[in-house]
């Protein structure tokens, strides 16, 4: 049985990926410093899968901790690296916090992997690396624009590190550029669990729908789009998780054609913020109180994916639609509101 280390494995995307890895027969080990996640998620993964993954509370910026982990957990075959700060707005205000955490953690991880002979890594990248492309949809060869945020810069730097390290060592890497993950597991046992004020649209939508927040602010309605609001490519988190399993398989079965590969993960369809609001009201029957605010620094106008390469090379395709995303996100929010999530 192949052993996969998942950094940030109690986080939103990480926890769903651990579930899919276990379902696919992998032994999983989770590392997380719990700065933006909760320990009870490990219990929930066990409830869903019947298997309890090993868990270590470690800060990857402390290299000694990383070295000790790889000594204890010998035989790791692959790493999926999620652990990173991810709030675009915060990264604009506190760039050094993001450069230190996101870059140093990856450097430490790659150094120890190289020392220990661990040769496969899947990297959690982002469509943020594209900035605002001149031509849409964005493909893997779309020229990267200057990042609008420190978060985007760290993802571009992460990809650059992997490309250079994979050219100079035996480490093979796949960078997965996510578009906009939303939704929750069908069990409503795990989902997006932001600490404090959410940084993504969907938690704001569901928290406003449940009454936790009085109003949803839509940042700008004067973009050159059909209704003036930003366009994004929303992808169900379970579809996204399954893509990581496919990426691991490609690395472990030595199917990669290059030492470093990049894939877009999205649906290929753009949806405006107002379309999300209207679809949420239709799917859940909940009216949303929203206002139009100023544009948010760091936001691009429109971004959606071309996913043919992932369809062809990874054998993966997004299967769940917008209604699935919204209904599962709402079911998760209802459980949170009822206080049954971490009971």
UniProtKB/TrEMBL annotation:
<dbReference type="GO" id="GO:0006012">
    <property type="term" value="P:galactose metabolic process"/>
</dbReference>
<dbReference type="GO" id="GO:0005829">
    <property type="term" value="C:cytosol"/>
</dbReference>
<keyword id="KW-0413">Isomerase</keyword>
<protein>
    <recommendedName>
        <fullName>UDP-glucose 4-epimerase</fullName>
        <ecNumber>5.1.3.2</ecNumber>
    </recommendedName>
</protein>
<dbReference type="Pfam" id="PF16363">
    <property type="entry name" value="GDP_Man_Dehyd"/>
</dbReference>
<keyword id="KW-0119">Carbohydrate metabolism</keyword>
<keyword id="KW-0520">NAD</keyword>
<dbReference type="InterPro" id="IPR016040">
    <property type="entry name" value="NAD(P)-bd_dom"/>
</dbReference>
<dbReference type="GO" id="GO:0003978">
    <property type="term" value="F:UDP-glucose 4-epimerase activity"/>
</dbReference>
<feature type="domain" description="NAD(P)-binding">
    <location>
        <begin position="5"/>
        <end position="327"/>
    </location>
</feature>
<dbReference type="InterPro" id="IPR005886">
    <property type="entry name" value="UDP_G4E"/>
</dbReference>
<comment type="similarity">
    <text>Belongs to the NAD(P)-dependent epimerase/dehydratase family.</text>
</comment>
<comment type="pathway">
    <text>Carbohydrate metabolism; galactose metabolism.</text>
</comment>
<comment type="subunit">
    <text>Homodimer.</text>
</comment>
<dbReference type="InterPro" id="IPR036291">
    <property type="entry name" value="NAD(P)-bd_dom_sf"/>
</dbReference>
């Amino acid at each position: 049985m192949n052993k996969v280390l998942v950094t940030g494995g109690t986080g939103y995307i990480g926890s769903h990926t651990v579930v899919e890895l276990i379902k696919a027969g992998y032994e999983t080990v989770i590392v997380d410093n719990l700065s933006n996640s909760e320990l009870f998620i490990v219990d929930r993964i066990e409830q869903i899968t019947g298997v309890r993954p090993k868990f270590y509370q470690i800060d990857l910026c402390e290299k000694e901790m990383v070295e000790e982990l790889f000594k204890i957990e010998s035989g790791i075959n692959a790493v999926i690296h999620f652990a990173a700060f991810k709030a675009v707005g915060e990264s604009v205000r506190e760039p050094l916090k993001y450069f230190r955490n996101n870059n140093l953690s990856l450097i430490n991880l790659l150094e120890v992997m190289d020392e220990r002979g661990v040769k496969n890594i899947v990297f959690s990248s982002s469509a943020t690396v594209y900035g605002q492309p001149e031509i849409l949809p964005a493909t893997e060869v779309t020229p990267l624009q200057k990042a609008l945020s420190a978060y985007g810069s760290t993802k571009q730097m992460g990809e650059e590190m992997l490309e250079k390290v994979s050219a100079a060592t035996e480490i093979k890497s796949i960078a997965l550029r996510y578009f906009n993950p939303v939704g929750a597991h069908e069990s409503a046992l795990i989902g997006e669990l932001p600490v404090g004020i959410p940084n993504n649209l969907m938690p704001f939508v569901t928290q406003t729908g449940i009454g936790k927040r009085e109003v949803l602010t839509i940042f700008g309605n004067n973009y050159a789009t059909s209704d003036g609001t930003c366009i994004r490519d929303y992808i169900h988190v379970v579809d996204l998780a399954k893509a990581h399993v496919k990426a691991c398989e490609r690395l472990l079965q030595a199917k990669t054609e290059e030492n470093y590969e990049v894939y877009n993960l999205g649906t290929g369809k753009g949806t405006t913020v107002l379309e999300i609001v209207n679809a949420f009201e239709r799917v859940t029957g909940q009216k949303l109180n929203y206002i139009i605010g100023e544009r948010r620094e760091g936001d691009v106008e429109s971004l959606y994916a071309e996913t043919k390469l992932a369809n062809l090379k990874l054998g993966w395709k997004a299967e769940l639609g917008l209604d699935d995303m919204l209904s599962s996100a709402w079911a998760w929010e209802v459980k949170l509101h009822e206080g049954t999530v971490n009971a």
